[in-house]
Design brief:
Elements (H helix, E strand, L loop, with lengths): L4 H14 L6 H12 L17 H19 L4 H4 L1 H11 L4 H18 L5 H19 L4
Helix pairs in contact: 1-7, 2-3, 2-6, 6-7
Bound molecules: protoporphyrin IX containing NI(II).
């Protein structure tokens, strides 16, 4: 992934403004995922998938924590997500298309929080980042 230094700064500054540890970014993105792409629900038969459920909220926090650590290590995302990559490839076996679905839902969630600040440049920077995270989490399938 080639993020320019401007894109890195843009991601880090907008992300810190969101204060992801205090908001329900992940839960909102997952709620959107299950509403817009209900086929993604098959991986979570053991969860309560009603919008805003505790399961969705807690799982959302885990997902956001992983993205947060990627953002703190933009030069070593592969290393930092290595264990998660093993988990998604060897245990969970999530069809990679779901990562594209989730990426879209994260974009919408970011846009609805950041409003005008989520301009084309911010979109492009996050798109590169989220696509790369999806690649890392699915690359061990081969
Ligand atoms: Ni994902 C578990 C991060 C995309 C299905 N996932 C996790 C965990 C993290 C995580 C963190 C918790 C690991 C642990 O407990 O050790 N997942 C991420 C990230 C992305 C992602 C950062 C992409 C941005 N996961 C997806 C997608 C799906 C998915 C697209 C399927 C639609 N993940 C799962 C499932 C689990 C999971 C299923 C196990 C849930 C559980 O608790 O049983």
């Amino acid at each position: 992934m080639v993020l320019t230094s401007e894109e890195k700064k843009l991601i880090q500054s907008t992300w810190s403004k969101l204060a992801p540890e205090h908001c329900d970014l992940g839960g909102e993105a997952l709620t959107r995922l299950f509403q817009v792409y209900p086929q993604s629900k098959i991986y979570f038969p053991h969860f309560d998938l009603c919008p805003g459920s505790n399961d969705i909220h807690h799982h959302g926090q885990k997902v956001v924590k992983a993205i947060d650590s990627a953002i703190k290590h933009l030069d070593n995302i592969r290393g930092c997500l290595s264990e998660l990559s093993d988990l998604h490839a060897y245990n969970l076996r999530v069809d990679p298309v779901n990562f594209k679905f989730l990426t879209r839902c994260i974009h919408v969630t970011l846009a609805s929080s950041l409003r005008g600040e989520y301009n084309a440049l911010a979109y492009m920077a996050y798109d590169k980042l989220l696509c790369f995270i999806g690649e890392v989490l699915t690359e061990k399938y081969r």
